[in-house]
Please model this.
Amino acid sequence: MSVIHSAVNDVPLDKIPALVFPALVETLIMVGIVMVIVIVVGVPLGALVHNLAPGGLIENRAAHSTVSWVVSIGRSLPFLILMASIMPFTRLITGTNIGIAAAVVPMSLAGVAFFTRIVENSLRSVPPSLVRVARASGASKLQVVRTAQLSEAVPQILGGLTINTIAMIEYSAIAGTIGAGGIGYVAVTYGYQRFDNTVMLVTIVILVVTVALVQLLGDAAVRLTTPYARRSSKRMRRAAPVSSEPVLAA
Amino acid sequence: MISLDKLTKVFGHGPHATVVLEDLNFSVAEREIFAIVGPSGAGKSTLAQCINLLERPTSGSVIVNGENLSHLNEEQLRIARRRIGTIFQSDGLFSRRTAAQNVALPLEYLGATKGEAKHRVAELLERVGLSSRANHFPHELSGGQRQRVGIARALALRPSVLLADEATSGLDPESTASIVALLKELRDDLGLAILFITHEMDTVLKVADSVARLDHGHIVESGALVSLLRDPTSLLGQALRPTSTPAVLPAGKDQWQLVYANAHVPADWLSTLSLTVGSPISLLGASIETINGAVVGQATIGLNATDDSTIINAALDLGLVAERISEQRPLLAPAPVLEIVA
Model:
């Protein structure tokens, strides 16, 4: 019965692409802009927090606590609350409270806070002996950060970046409610509020596929930047036909 | 040439201060391999970090080729570090860089052009015998090969001092031997002063010209390797001489320990000694070898009871210092170990 009932208000099948594809493009633009900001700000910030910590290159207890505390605030607010609470700030920067521009501000804040911790955590996994090696080889502090910390942590950072990107796709749906548009917004307004099961289903499929694609890309990037994984997967591929020979013979 | 002058390192302040190194004085000449041995916790790693200037000494100085490096500011220190090449324990390679890229690191930091770096890296890898492995990643190399890459990297900026911090620890005997041979070759060819920090006594025998023993932050004994080995009273010499459990002493005989004390011990001392003291000698254990061109060794023998001074004097005439090992001492007692003595 509900199918017949809702079918009255449903978007006709042939109109769905026109509804969904611009929304997907909006999501990609939103998340794309945010991720650029997240990387540009989050990587240096993460490296800064890591090196202000005890044992870091520019150890400073007071500065470390301050920066760490600010990042933690950004991490602890639920995104919807963060978005609502910084409205004045958003308006100050973008001159508006609605649309993609307005969504990018809170998403970037949340994303940067998230990514700062990811970068910090990734750098912590690099053996500290490498920092000593770099310094003993005559590296400046910036060179140490670039070669002995960030470069060695690239696979971990890329893995974290994948998680972060997916979280931002999720946030974009929430940001959609302030008129930023996007695929999440279509799912909420058409699928959820208007009981349009078809649109709901289509958006779910698109979101699942998008997230899966991001994950696949991320995994591939991690593999490509890890010499060990890269070589061993090549070896496995080379070994594969050899191991299948007896099967073919049989 | 590198020397330490009254080098002291204290961590912490006031009541929590810990003196890690106190009043260290020594110098390593050109073409000399100077080994520093000591148990863990003796301050070896702190000493290494003071020498390659990663840590500033609390007082005293590190002097390289006549220049005192202890009063430099951060930027000058960074440049000064380039005169000292450091070989780290085998894990010092960057995992995402090939052997060649690892060797190129110091050149990259210095700002060398790609072409210059490439030329120098090829030369260095050739020097350590790894030209064919240039494009291999660290995980594709054996422990010994990784350490060779580490050595090539340490040499990249043509340092006059090489610091090897536990460079052979954790390597198999074959790799250790090849690294030791390479270090000696580099010392001769490049006139390096090499400081070799280790806890492995057997490696010291193979590599060092001089040895110092570090314990609780002090240098408690030091000297030329051969003279330490020839000094029966030296604890460090005793710890360095290879020891093994001697054969069982035949009944009615006394056990004696003989140490080669100079360069004039005749090869046939055993029969000479036997004739002089008028007793057949049972050879229970011996280790005689050539170290840095000098014969050193020790032997455990058993002979029939005679006057102790006769034996001591007869041995001394042959260049051997003899010591009677009392019967109370259990035959299987472990050789005195540095840690226990200290």
